[in-house]
């Protein structure tokens, strides 16, 4: 039965939008807040490592709760723990850099619980025919929140000066999380089925399931890039511009571009175009980093950011849709959707950790601008690895669909 993007799907998009908005309001400036207290790339890297370890563990351990009990409560707890994280940041103030490991763990647990439940519900209320459209809407809402949230936060922080602006932003973020939590109670409780198989992710990779093996490798390369790019770009913009308002402006512009590109990709990127689109996207994501070889300036970062926003949907939509299509290709796979979502996240986590360890290792030796650019260029080429592993699978999509 075809599922439209109305009802529960629209409500899930709204909850997701509020959760992402709150992250855009406060999360965009979180690493800048840490940097202003202690200018240390390694410290930022270890904060990310703590998040990723906790996120992966939350997916694996939370899988039992989500499969056998109420996944909606896992989603709500994720929202609540996100609020707790920002309460802790407000309480610690200038001491925040002394607690990057416990804070990273709290934020990782919050993200893990929310995204685990979200991904399972997303799978249950979409199917192959409308999954690209749903992903396009997720990207579009993410772009809208990226326009409003960081610009507002940057303006407040710059206008109020010092830590007062950050406190106001973190408090607003808490209020948005509370709104998302209330809205989540209108999502219907999903049925549970079967018992959770703890070692299914490992068994799936060790068995002869070639599709999941190549998908796992592709996800590792996706994580290799995004683990570092998720925090480094915003930090570099602040370091280059030395103003939070400039980071808000950067995010506003790039998110406005992303809004259009995600809308277009969601509308026209059909399964039969996934392979070609993904290759073009991967190549262009590398190309937009090249101007940084001349200078790591605000202008060059803006060129890279606009280019990335234009082309990343070509890469991301096939990556997301392909792995979720695999979960629904048989009744047996659909019955193990929780375990397969956990497998997907563990692959991403492994890539993110690998990229972050490379970041910490290289920048602990040299933090020169050229070193940073070459590191970005190397990690930025990781999407090509994803395409190399997935292109044979993606080409199947160009064949006539079986009845």
Automatic annotation (TrEMBL):
A Pfam family the protein falls into: MFS_1
Listed transmembrane segments: 42-62, 74-93, 99-122, 134-153, 165-187, 214-241, 247-264, 276-294, 300-320, 341-365, 371-390
Entry GO MF terms: transmembrane transporter activity
Keywords in alphabetical order: Membrane, Transmembrane, Transmembrane helix
Record localization: Cell membrane
UniProt GO cellular component terms: plasma membrane
InterPro entries: MFS, MFS_trans_sf, Sugar_transport-like
This protein's name: MFS transporter
CDD domains in the record: MFS
Membrane topology: Multi-pass membrane protein
Species the sequence originates in: Paenibacillus durus (Paenibacillus azotofixans)
Chief location bin: membrane
SUPFAM superfamilies noted in UniProt: MFS general substrate transporter
């Amino acid at each position: 039965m075809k599922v439209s993007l109305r009802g529960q799907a629209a409500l899930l998009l709204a909850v997701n939008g509020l959760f992402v908005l709150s992250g855009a309001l406060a999360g965009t400036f979180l690493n800048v807040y840490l940097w202003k207290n202690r200018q240390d790339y390694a410290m930022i890297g270890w904060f990310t490592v703590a998040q990723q370890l906790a996120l992966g563990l939350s997916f694996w351990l939370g899988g039992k709760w989500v499969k056998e009990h109420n996944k909606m409560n896992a989603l709500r707890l994720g929202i609540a723990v996100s609020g707790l994280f920002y309460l802790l940041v407000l309480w610690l103030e200038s001491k925040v850099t002394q607690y990057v490991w416990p804070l990273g763990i709290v934020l990782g647990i919050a993200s893990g619980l929310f995204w685990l439940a979200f991904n399972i519900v997303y799978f249950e209320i979409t199917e192959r025919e409308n999954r690209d459209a749903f992903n396009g809407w997720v990207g579009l809402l993410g772009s809208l929140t990226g326009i409003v949230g960081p610009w507002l936060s940057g303006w407040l922080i710059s206008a109020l000066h010092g830590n007062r602006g950050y406190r106001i932003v973190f408090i607003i973020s808490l209020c948005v999380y509370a709104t998302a939590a209330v809205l989540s109670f209108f999502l219907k409780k999903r049925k549970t089925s079967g018992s959770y198989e703890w070692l299914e992710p490992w068994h799936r990779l060790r068995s002869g399931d070639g599709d999941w093996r190549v998908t796992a490798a592709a996800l590792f390369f996706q994580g290799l890039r995004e683990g570092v790019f998720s925090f480094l770009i915003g930090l570099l913009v602040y370091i280059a511009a030395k103003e939070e308002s400039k980071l808000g402006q950067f995010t506003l512009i790039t998110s406005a571009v992303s809004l259009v590109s995600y809308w277009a990709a969601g509308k026209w990127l059909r399964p039969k175009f996934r392979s070609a689109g993904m290759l073009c996207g991967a190549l262009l994501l590398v190309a937009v980093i090249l101007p940084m070889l001349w200078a790591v300036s605000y202008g060059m970062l803006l060129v890279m950011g606009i280019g990335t926003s234009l082309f990343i949907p070509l890469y991301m939509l096939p990556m997301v849709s392909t792995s979720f299509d695999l979960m629904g290709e048989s009744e047996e796979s659909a019955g193990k959707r929780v375990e397969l979502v956990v497998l997907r996240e563990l692959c991403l986590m492994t890539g993110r950790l690998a990229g972050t360890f490379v970041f910490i290792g290289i920048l602990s030796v040299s933090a020169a601008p050229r070193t940073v650019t070459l590191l970005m260029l190397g990690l930025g080429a990781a999407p090509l690895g994803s395409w190399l592993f997935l292109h044979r699978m993606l080409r199947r999509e160009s064949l006539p669909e079986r009845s």
